[in-house]
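Researcher: Please translate sequence to C-alpha cells.
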Amino acid sequence: MTATIYELSPEGQWHKVRVIKDVDHKTFQDIEAYVEYYQSQVRVKYSRLATI
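Model: Translation complete:
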C-alpha cells in the first residue's frame, strides 16, 4: 500500500507533498499521527491522506 499526503493550498487546490511506499496498516496509523503532528506544528491544512 502507498500513502500519499496532500496539502491544501490557500487557493483550495490539493498538492501532493509526500509519498510513502510499502506501507502496512500499523505504519499507516503512524503516518496519520505524523500528519496530525505536522498540522499542529505548521498550522497547514494537511487533512487528506490517500491510500492505493
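Researcher: Any highlights?
Model: The mean pLDDT is 69.
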